[in-house]
Amino acid sequence: MNIVVAGVGKAGHALVRQLDAEGHDVTVIESKSQVLEQTPDYLDVVGLQGSGTDVDVLREARAAKANLVIAATSTDETDIVICLLGRGLKEVMIAGGSRIAAYLATRLLDINIAVKIIEKNPDKALDLALRFPDVTVICRDGTDQATLLSENLDGMDGFVSLTDNDEENVIISMFAEQQGVEHVVPKVNRVELGFLLENRASPMP
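^ that's the sequence the OP posted. Answer follows.
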């Protein structure tokens, strides 16, 4: 498999070692040159210095053609952006209007990707609508399947679930996949939910 790994901290190094040992073609993206230089010479990997959120760097790493893009940086926001930007997208739906959702919306708009946010709290929804006039903000429950379908979920290129409930994030992400959404990223904080994500393409730990 062709795999792109963004971020080679302690966890990233261990992951790259394992992938290389299994015979995968690995490309590593790391912003800190000193960290990249510490990647052992005996590993058969390609190293690129730069940010995993930089579209040009992802393009050079051929992320769009990779079988898997793994984000292993130190922040949730960056990991989500990398998982989405590693593929060509036109429209993304976000369930939950959190701080991360606002950050993600900003980055997606910067590269001309249409964004739709579904947030059930009226105050949060209004704040997002005022902050992001180019984003479609829907004040409804983003965990409700009927709502997702009515908002054209099956026509989206990407779906990100950012509610405060891990179980709901997993369930609606699975529903999004069932509707044919190709790139789905659930936000999951609890390790014990990992077994639910074994078949997921782009889980965010």
